[in-house]
Each structure stands twice: as C-alpha cells, then as structure tokens.
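Quick entry, no commentary yet.
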Amino acid sequence: MQKEDLKTKIKSKEYKTLLNIEKPDIEGNALEIFKRRYSLKDEKGDPKETVAEAMMRVASNVALGEEEETLIKTYTKHFYNLLATKRFIPNTPTWSGAGTPLGQLAACFVLPIKDEMGKEEGGIFSTLRDAVLIQQTGGGNGFSFSKIRPKGDRVKTSNGIASGPISFLEAYDAAFGQIAQGGTRRGANMAVLRVDHPDIRSFITCKSSEGKVANFNISVAITDKFMKAVKEEGDFDLINPRNGEVWETVKAKELFDEIIKYAHHNGEPGCLYIDEANRYNPVPNQYLLEATNPCGEQWLGPYENCCLGHVNILESVVDKKIDWDHLKDTVVLGTRFLDDVVNQNSYVPSVPKLKEAAHKNRRIGLGFLGLADTMYKMGIRYGSEESLDLASQLTEFIRFHSMKTSIELAEERGAFPGISGSIYDPENVTWKEPRSLMDNKLDLNRPSINWSEITRGIKEHGIRNSTQLTVAPTGTTSTVLGVEGYGCEPVFALAYYRNVYQSAGTGEDKLQLTYVSPLFQQALDKADLSEEKKKEIVEYSINKGTIQDLTDIPEDIKKAFVVSADIKPTEHVMMQAAIQRFVDNSISKTCNFPEGATEDDVAKVYIMAWELGCKGLTVYVTGSRQEVVLETKETKDKKDGSTPENKVDVDEGHMKPRPSVLHGRTHQIDTPFGKAFVTVNRNGESGTDPFEVFVTIGKAGSDLSAVAEGFGRVISGWLRSSNDPYSAMEEIVEHLKNIGGATSTGFGPNRVRSLPDAVAKVLIKELELSNGVKEEGIKEELLLTTTTSTTKFSESQEESDSSASLKNAGMCPECGNMALIEVEGCQKCLGCSYSRC
C-alpha cells in the first residue's frame, strides 16, 4: 500500500466502539483527586481547569506528535474521547507535563554508572549530575552500581584503596535527600547490585540502619548461575567487575538466606532476575540490561525512560462478558497515543542523551488496570485456574493488537531507528512468538489470534516500538477511573473506613465515612438479602478484613469477592507468571504473605518465580515493617545495655550523666499507627528512678520512626534534668494522655487515641509499678489493649475507628490517615490516593 493511500485510510478510520461525549463522568473522591493531581493550578495552587479541559489539553498536545494537520485534528478527537470514556489513562507525568513549559512526560529513567569518577559520560559523578537534573523535574531514576570496583580494591591512578559501591550509593542518597529538603518534588530511585559483586552482603544490609539509604529502593540482580548453585547448595564465585577475577567464593545458599532474611523482615531487597530479562532484551546488540526503574516493571537500557499508559479492562466488560472489539479499539488507540508521547516529550534538555535514547528505540509500556474488578464482575476468584486463564487470554489479546498496531505505525511512519541488529530486524527476525503458561480452557468467545501474522508483518515493515507492554503501578490512575484493582493486583479491601476532614484543624473536624466496593455492593444488592443482613456483611468485612469466614452468605459472592489477604503467595506468583508470558517488559506486583509467614515461605516463592520465568519479585510479609524495628542498632543497644550512639543532645551541665548500663522494661502497645515499643529505663541509688524513654514504631528510617525517636529524646531530657523524676513523669503523663488524632484503637479505658496517648498509658503503668502494683496485672492490661480490636467483634462495630482491612496499613504522609498499603511493589494510600511511585 502506498503511503498516501495509508494516510487516507487512517483519516477515515472509525473506532466503532468509541463514544463521543462532552463531559467526562468523574465525580466524588475521584474528582477531588483528579483536580489535585492532574489539573493545572493557578498562582494560589487552586485548579484552573475542569476535567474536560485537562483532558483536551493532554489529548491535543499528545496529538501534535502526528505528522500532519488533518491527523492532528483526527487524533485530538480520538484521544480526548478515549480519556473521557475512562477506557485509557496515561501516567501522571503526562497529565502534569503536557502543554506546559516543562513538557516532561516520563516518570522514570535508567542511568548508567561506570567505574570512573566523572571524567567520562556515565562516570559516577557525571551520572549523579544527570540524576539530580532529572529529580528536579520530578522524575525518578534506576541505577546499577555493579560496575564499581569492590571496597578494598586497589586504585591504580591514586595508589589508594577503593571505597566500593555502597559508599557511592550513600553519596547519591545524600544528594537526593538535599533535593527533597530544598522543597522540590522528589522522584523515587532504584539501586541494583549484581548478586556476584564482592560487596553484595553490604548491599543487602545497607538499609538496616536507621535513616540509611532512605531515598532508594534496593534490589539484587539474581543470575541463573546463582539460583542453580542455591538449589544444588554449591559454591558461588563473587567477581571483581574491574578485571573479572574471582574475589571470593561463598556458599550460595548462605548468601541466598541472607537476601531472604531481609526481604522477609522489611520487603527489601527486591529480587530482579537479570538473565531472564536479557533473554527478552529487544536490542542485545546495543547493551545488556542492568537495572530497572524504581518500581521494577521496566528493564531499561542507558538513558531510556518509562512511557506508560493503561487500558481500563473493566470498561470492556458487559454482562459478565468481554467486548473484544471494544477492547481492541482501546489497545489500538492507546498504542498510538504512547508513540505520540515519545515524539512530544521534552525530556530533560540539559541531559540530551535521554531524548536520543528514547527516539532510537521508541520503547512504550502499554499496561492495564481493573483486572481484579473484571474478575469480580465475571464471578471468577482471583488466584484460581480460571483467573489465570482469563488473565493470560486478556494479556495475549492486548499484546497481539499492540504489536499489530506498532507494525502498522512502522508502515506509516517508519520502524524504530535502532531496529538493525535487534530481535525485530526485518533481515533477521529472532523474535519468538509468545506462548501461554497453561492451556486455555476458558471459553471467552475471544477472536482467534495468529502470531505468524505478526512475524510476517515485522519481516515486511519492521515495528515502530522496540517494546510494547508493561504492567506498571496505577494507584492514582485507578482511583481516578473508579477502579479498585490496581494493575494486575487483587483488590486490597472490600470495605473500610475513610476519614474526610471538613475543615482544617484537629481530629474533631473529621467525618468518618464507610467505603464499600461498588461491585461488592452491587452483588449484595442483587442477592436475596435483607438490608440488615447486607449491613452486617459489610461491617464484618470492615472488622475482619475478609468475608471468607462467613457461612451465611451466597456462595457465588463468597467465591468471587476475595481480597489480597485471601490470596496464597503461590497464587500471586502464578498470576504474575501467567501475565509475564505476554508482557515483553516486566510487571509491578507485590506478593503478599500473611502474618507469621517464615523465611522459608519467602524463599520458596523466590525460587518459584525464577523457575516460572518472572523477571522480578517483590514480597511483603504483613506486619513485618513493624517488627523490623527490633533489629535496629538502637534497640539492640537497649537490649544489651550498651550506650546508644544517639544520646540526648542537651546541655550536660543540667542533666544527670548516663551510666553505661541501665535496666528497664520494654512495653508493646497497639497504636493507630501500628505496634509501638516503649522502653522505660531506670536509675538512681535505689535503681528505680525513671531515667530515660525510647519510643520505637514504624519502619526504620521512616518519618514516623523519626518522630517517635525525637519524642523519646525530649521525654528523656525532661526526666534526666529533673530532681524529682517521678513528679516529672506524672507531669509528662498529664500533658500527653487523651491527645486525640484522626483514628484510634482499642475500647474503653484501653482506648489509644494517638502515639502520645500510647506513651502516656505506658508511663502510667510504670508509675503504678513504682507504687507496688503487680507486674502481672500490668501485662494483662497491656495485652488487652493489643488484642481487643481483633477479638471483640460486637464492640468494634460500635467503637473502633480502625478496621482489620487496614490494621497493618502505614501512615500516609499526605493525608495522615493510616491507609498506606503495600501494593504493585509500591506504597499507595486508600484514603487520598497518594503514591510513593
């Protein structure tokens, strides 16, 4: 077909399932999030455009990537309608950057790091300079530190000793921390180190100290050779990257166990299967893949970026069936939209390599969201064989039509410039047609797919984009579209309490609303249930976090409406593996474990994920980020009686000196923020005077942990400066008790309203101990505080401000609600849709 004939065909093309509407259907909480996140702001920070205006701004600016005026007009309309009907949504930077002077439409990049200080492009400090410039635009970065020589190696030029990659990781971390302190929005970062690097053990533990490497996610690049040695319990060589020589030989299983230990306790390091990623590297002639973006779903070459958009699968489900024509049109337009984004992105002009890399290989990452919602609507249990079949067929269909569209774009516009020597080189196509993880048994009435058609198209025209699919985090974007299943994740909770503040001020201004999954509510409404019974089921879901223990509920509802906590870890991995077969990039997903999961449990899924062909794995053991505080140095010091490094920094002339050994008690108490550990140490001639207090809560290095540490220091300074520490403690209690926050936990006299209130309750117990109250009674009262919320269902309906669905959630740094959950390898707030990614 001649190019002019092709253009005529494009101009007249009708997307028969695309509706023409003038006003997008976004309202309520989704509307507030849209205005806060996506709408442009005036000088006062207030939204200055409506939802429709924002959508037109994005559609018209992206459509400028088309080649001629007629096509620009045509696709402005198509793209606007695509957004307005909630069938597709681009990543957040496209909303914030399109049509603005910044013009930066990419969220993340990968930058190379050479074993060189900065004389060359890609040197350690040359890359740091580029990364800082990207961070200033709000972009995130991924790095591999694997090429840096190990600590203790010789440096020939200076005749010195190398400090190793961890020292430079800490330097990067400090620089990014300064950017955040300067008031600029901070992008996320990923640090990767190969498992065969001599400094791998230091890397695994680099985040275990409080406040260290706080601006990075860390992941180990796992090789096939290492995993085989683990299974065989054999030796494994650590290699000096400077010369390729063996630095040390270790036991593979011991090193693997160390990785698992820290992943189990804190979710990090993550695991990246680097050899599997490189087996699907589309341009192996250009580079080997070494690192991913901060959320792990995009393996990228040097200076390449994430160009992301998401298909809303739920919008293509009608009467429990998938409208395949509808979905196809969405995929076709979404693919074209992202290719235009590559053209329209301004990147970071002061780092020209970013634009060069993007245009050379034209990577895009079309993903999806609403998979779990689709399963709810079709009555399929997430994690079942049926669900794997459904996910596999959907992903295959999306990949097929995205590739087909990319081939048509290559015919119209030309193949990506770096195609020669790639797996898509028309002269020597080495790309292999993808195959499903299992036989497809579910009859979904899906149109047939002929992969040989794609191979023929590549040989004839090449392909426009070197990669096509990615399943990326969709926290904010999902909420804006009214979808509960982020990316390919299961739904986190069917119902929970959401705090809404009516005006600025204290917790008294809050209005607590009950949020119920719309699809769950619809299923209940269709069932033959009384209003009282429906209300009871919802309340049970809020307080227990699941409906799977209910016996008097319709079986079809119980079967389909599972939440993340109901899914077995192996089912999480199987779902990821089934989808990965048709995703040429990678997948952002969290494999959730219940409380009590062992390190051996985590180890099994790491091996399983590698064997099934996943390209990475992120795990989270429920409650683990609360337990890891017990392993911090400060807590260890308190347990063995040694002097903490961080003493109270108060004028010693007004304070009693601290002995080298003190004795005391550590109390565990539930707070609205999770479990807190409050240690009260005593001193004095009798050995009973209260002397210092330590408060530990939350993940080491988190904002909450820092507040708690500061809290303890202030109390300790007060006690050590008083001639009557008992009176001082009583005064502290009077100041702290009954301080109320947005949420509380427990009931009656054991109700804990805030972290200060929790500390006050512990100090009251300590005062009672000093007055002769038996310690056994104290332990019973504290135990009641930590267990009542999960054992007294009838009371919790009336009094509890929290729910079992969110009992292990963290505090959102933006809205302050205890609704920050682990999902898609990231953290996302169910209350306000804040996302760390």
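second:
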Amino acid sequence: MGFPKFFSIFSANANNQNGSIQENLIKNPRKYLTFPRSVFNYLGLGRLAVSGNKSDGSQKSEEEEKVYSWLYALAQSDKDLVFEYVRSTERGLSFTEADRRLRENGPNVPLGYTFPNWWHLLWHAFFHPFNIILIILSALSYVASDSPNGCIMLILVFISVSLRFYQEYTSSKAAMKLSEFVRCPVKVQRCAGRVIQTELIVQVDQRDIVPGDIVIFEPGDLFPGDVRLLSSKHLSVSQSSLTGESWITEKTADAKENQRTPLLELKNICFMGTNVVSGSGMGLVVSTGCKTYMSTMFSSIGKKKPPDGFNDGIRCISYVLISVMLVVMAIIILTDYLKSHDVSESVLFGLSVACALTPNMLPLIVNTSLAKGALVMARDRCIVKSLAVIRDMGSMDILCIDKTGTLTMNHAIIVNHLDSWGSPQEKVLRFAFLNSYFKTDQKYPLDDAILAYVFTNGYRFQPSKWSKIDEIPFDFIRRRVSVILETESNASQGRNSHTCDRFMITKGALEEVMRVCSFIDNVDGSELVTFSSEDYQRILNMGEELSNRGLRIIGVAIKRLQMQGSHPNMANEEITESDMVFLGVITFFDPPKDSAKQALWRLAEKGVKAKVLTGDSLSLAVRICEELGIRTTNVTTGPELELLNQDDFHETVKSATVLARLTPTQKLRVVQSLQTAGEHVVGFLGDGVNDSLAIDAANVGISVDSGASVAKDLADIILLEKDLNVLVAGVENGRLTYGNTMKYIKMSVVANIGSVLSLLIATLLLEFEPLTPRQLLTQTFLYSVGQIAIPWDKMEEDYVKTPQKWSEKSLPIFILWNGPVCTLCDLANLIFLWFYYRDYNIFDVKFFHSAWFIEGLLMQTLIFHLIRTEKIPFIQEISSWPVICSTVVISAIGIAIPFTQVGEVMGFTNLPFSYFGFLVVLFLGYFTVGQVVKRMYILIYRKWL
C-alpha cells in the first residue's frame, strides 16, 4: 500500500483519475500542489508547501513530506473518509484481502537493517591497500623463483586478515544475539467475508499487519504501524521512542486537529514504535513498514559516513609508496642489469628492494592494535562491532549524549513536599502516600517514587489504619486521580449505624488539582482559608519557578466527606471532585548517576567536549547538566533551531552545550553539522529508537544492551553497562592504538625510504649489489618481526590527553625532515667502509654485505625508539618491556648471523670488533642529529607524532 491520493477526493473530476488513489500520489506527488489554497489549507498542508525555504536544520525529504501530508489529512478527516482513503470498512478487512495486501506490501518491518554476512566481513578485512601490494609482490616473487619471500608475504597477509575477521565476526555475532527480533502478537478485527456478516477478533503477528487492519490495543501493547484512532478510553501513550521525552501523551479519537499542530502532537494519530501506557482503544492501521513515520524518519540510515581521515591517509601513502616503488625498482633493475647482465637476478633484487620499501607489517600492526583495544574494552563489558571505531575513539573530540537513562538514573525521586507557601510540610506527603498506596489503577513512576521515599525514610503513616471505599482513576482529560478512604476505627463499625469520617484524596497536575479546590490548608493549622485568585496565581508562579529548576510537580488536595450510610455517588465526578482543600505540592527529579559527573570530568580532561541532545524540556536538561557540571551558558531548543538559516544553525550548534526538545531528525542534523561545518569527530551515545539516526551518522555510534533493537543494530559499540567511565577507558585506549599505529607508519616509511635511497645510491656507486636479494629479504623479515611488539608499547601522558587526528600534510613533511637522516647514516657507513677498511678490501663482497646488513638492521631497529617519543630516548623516556625485549633480541640475532654457519650460507663473513666500535659512535651521532632535527621539527610544527 502506498499513500492514498487524498487530494483527488475533493476534486470534481475525481472519478476520472486513472489508477488507484494511492498510486497517483506516489507517482506524481507534486501534481496536486496546484489545488486551490482553501482545499490545501483544509488538509493542513499549507505550512508544508513552503518547506523548501527552510534551512539545513529543518528541511524534510520528499518521503517525509509525503508521510506528513498523509497523516495530517487523516487526522483532520472524518472517520468515514479515513476508511475510504485506506479502502477498508468498519468491520475490518477480510482474510483474503489481508493476505493479498501482505503479498503486495511485504512484511511489516520498519527498517531493513541486516547484519553483514561473514563474507562481507572477510572482504572488508582483506581489502587493505598494503595487503594488495603484498599479494602483488608475492606473486612477482613466485614468478621470479623466490618462493620463500613470496610465502612470507602471504603469511603476513593471512595473519592480518584472520585477526581482523575473527574479532569483527565474533563481535557481530554477539551483537546479533542482543538484537534478535521479538515477534509481537496484535489483536486484529477481521471479517469472515462479504456474505457472512461476522467480525472476528484474531491474534496476528506484527509482521503480518497490513494497511486497513483494525487493531485493538491495551496497556503494554506496541502500535504495529501508524494508526488513526477510531475509539479510545482514557488512552495514554509513551512516544519516548520517537521524541526522547520521558513523559506520557494523551490520545483521543475525537480530537479535532488543525494545521498548526506539530505532527507528533496529533491526538488522534498513534505512531509505529510507540506503546500504550494506560487505557484502551481501537484504531485503523493507515501505514505499515517503510511507509510509516518512523521508517521515513530513519530513511537516511545506512548512508555513507563522513570520510575517515586515517583511511584516506593510508590510501594516500599507498599511492605514494607504489609510485616510489615503481620508480626505484625500474632504476635498480636497470642499473643492476647493466652491471651483471643477469635479468633474473636483477628483477629479483628489484623485487627485494620493493619489499623493503613496503611497510609489510602495517595491516598486521594496525589490526593487532585494534584487536588488542577491543579485548581491553571487552573486559570492561563492551561489544566492539567494528575494529576501526577503536581508532575513531582516539580522534573523538565531541561526545553527544542523550540524557534519559544515560546521564540520569531513569527513575524519579522526591525532592520536596511543600505547602502552598513553599515550606516543607509532612502532611502533604502523608496524603499523597495514601493516594498512591490505595489506588488500584496502574501505578505510574511517580507513585513508585512516593512509596519508595516514604518506606526508605522511615515515615510511619500506618496505611493499615485506613481502608479504601472507592476510586476515580486517572485520565488525560482530568489529569488527576482520587481515592476515598476512611479510618480503620470507623470502618470497623457498621457503616449504616453512624456517620463515618471519610476523606477524598486527590493528586495530579497542579492546575487541574487547583481547579477543583475552594480552600487552602492554613499554615498554622487553624481554620481553612478561601482559595482566592491571588492564591491561585501565587501557587502557579511557585510551580513555574520549580519547573524552571527542572523539577516535575504534582498538586495534592483533600476533602473531608461527612455522610451517613453508603459511600458517595461516584457517577458525577465533577460534583464529587469539588470544594476541596489544597494542601501543597510534591516535586520530583530524575537524578544524575553518581558515575556520570566523574566520567564527564575525565572526558573533558582529555579534550572531549560533552553536548547533551535530548527530547526533554530545556529546564529539565539544564538542571541535569548543572548537577553534572556541564556548562549551560549556551543552550537552545529544537523549535529555535527550526527558525535558523544554515550559517546560524551551524554556529548555534557549535556553541551550544545543551540542546533540548530535539526530534530524531534534528539530532541527526546536529551531528552532521558538527562533522561537516565544525570538522569534529563526533560520538553519540543513546539507547532509544529516537537516537538511531544520530547513532548511525556519528563517527562513533554507541548504544547499550538494554536499548532499542535498532539502536543496537546501528551502533559501533554496545555497552553492557550504562557507565560512562567505560568510554573514558575507550578514549584512552583509542589514542594509545592511534599513537602506536602512527609510530609504526612514520617509523617504517621514514626508515624504508631512507634505506631504499641508500641502496639506490650504493647500487649506483658500487660494482656489485649492496645486498643480495636473500640478504635484503632476511634483513626486512627480521626488522618486520621486531615490530610485532609495537601494539604493546605505551604512549606519553600528554599524547593521550588530547584528541588525535590524521593530518594529510604532516606525513610528507615528516618524511622530508627525517628520511635524509637515515640516508646520511647509511652513507656515513659507506664512507667509513671505503676509507677506513680500504686495506681490508672494500671490494670484498662478503665483508661489505656483512657490514651493510648489520648496520642497516640495527639502524632500522633503533630508529623506532627515536621516533616513538618527543623526549630523549632511553634517557627521558623508555619504551615498554615488550618493545625493549624485541629490540634486544632482533639486534642480537642480526649481529650474530654473520658469525654463524647460517651467515656463511647466506654469503656473510666475520667482521672485526673495531667495526662495532664504529657502529656505537655512528648510532650515537645518528641519535644526536635525529634529536636535533626532532626539536627543530617540534618547534616549527608544534607536534611530533
């Protein structure tokens, strides 16, 4: 079913329209905007016609416009027209017609999100630029009859891909278990057929509901689609899944709507995903599946997120290294061939140089670092669905948080019980307690708060001495609940033999309670005072002041009933609830979590700014933020954002710390504004359906295991406990992962390019290869193995304190500054060998290969310690023990190889001990020059890694 062409119903030539009512509106939605303005305004669409002038913060998509138009038309039309629009009857659909519509429309599933299949995860893990480079080099190595080298590179690719695939596949399976679809039965009225005039009430799975079905709902039921109410009785609905507001909403079938009513405030329309809190009713399903308001609202889910600076940077490095690799390979192959006239040997040497230029371990180092971070977060009871998000957490500088249940405990507590003058009064609490204790209608969270407060604070109100006579349940017209009680002593006597002291106790919305009061309880307990207009305004002002503090208020009143015999007639509620005595008010507050303030303070210390995005009222959000220490100097609301142009919208979002009364689409636009206009890396923490858009769009989407299914489906991280301190650890871990990855990237690219330039120069100057292909590959392999410990290295405290982002310009500049230092070190070695060991015969190939092998390996191993810190290595800052051990072991192996039989087989020879003395001096000089270059670089660019 689509959207019916309700415009044509009011047209004189409606019968001449071709096709179904619905098809024409879908195919030509703009065609009907030429109708007379009177008809247009009648349907409540006037304000939608000018929506094209709205700013970024309030524009609606074409699909949203269709849904808005459709629902407004239904809300303002009589029931007979509504049945005609959806082609249904008051008896409901027949089973045959319902089956036909189900086949036509498909299952009633609002969102088509599915978890990625295992082969998608495998492809994502495999498709990395350096994996592709390694596979190409491996293939070329096999072609050149160098299978050991090709095998090593394939093993590196296999380990890297397997590690990432295993972690993401395991996390995906865990997330799927948390997000399994729960099938909900729905009561539906259907007719047996056209001949048999019988209506049947049947249970139908929510997935099988179709437009035109008549559904019957009771407390606790979810609406299976967008529903136009046909009848209702004291119906209250929770729309928190769409709005984020924690309070319930009144709905009634007899409401008369107008064009200025916000969509979610339409009284006779109930939306898919919302649920019945109290009351009952019957409604006509007008939209299902992807045509509902909720689905259209989430139509942007799954769209591409903002570009990932890190991955873009890796891609850029890949292209640069491939270009350099091809040029250097061509030069070296040509040069070597001119000397040796051996094509196979020259190609093999060129491939070895290309392998040395490639950061072979980058995929493995990155994936190991990310997997290690995911395991750390798993110990903190988090499910990390995407490994890349660990790195994004290190770059995150803004965390947007939904208030309800995240910053707060998600249950109300009593703050004060005050008389009409604002002074504490226990009498107010006592009668409110008796009302909540004896009411048999559904107990709301405020009732639970009153009962818990009395029982936990030791009040002795002795409810056993009271007995209940009758009750007027809560409804959304009166917005109050009343009970009639009498004392036990009087109740024990015959009711018809004496006059009983009975009390009517009423509590509810402040204005509605005051409306039935004629007296005020005097402060000194003396005679009652008449409720004057001045008293009414004074109490109203007091209530407004308390509301502005973020408190919720209810009024309490009583009435002493003096009567003989049976209890009063409860049929006339207006007469019974009258001439009451106003006692005072009770204030409630949803308190912040104890851990939230500490976590937000720790995040602020690390450069992560918190912004509260909520659907609740501004005063309540401000009160929570003040309790948590969040600045509230710049605040705004959703309706205010609607009025702003694009530039003002971006500026307001940038400066505001509290944004209240936001719709789900406004939350999405706030996140997108921060990403694009502010160039921030944004995280969003929420647990409701109303948060799903923002969770999906954020760089780091976070939900909780108790959250809505769609929120968990779209989140990158699922918290098994609602504790913000886990995010603090995640941010630290993300920056550690990012830092260690950047260490390897910068170190490997600098060392590899420096060494390859040295090899190129040596190849041009010498009559033989500086190293044979086997020796060069062995050197590269040992150096690569030595880097496996990098994910277990530590970072300096100053680095972890600030968000870390990829800079496109920083790496080329870093290479230009530090690469030549490595080349100079190699050239110094070449000059020393040329002049000092001339008598030792520099042209002794084995001698030169042994010296060049050891110096190159030690230089590439030690350069990590120079680059990993801004400070002086080994003096002011020392790396972690795994890195130290790895450096020592690889260096020892490299030095020992020329003195062993393995070295003899590889073409090495023993070296004099004087050469190792030279290496000590050489590397001291290298570290000195490198440290000077480092200080100059930091002085100019204000950053090292």
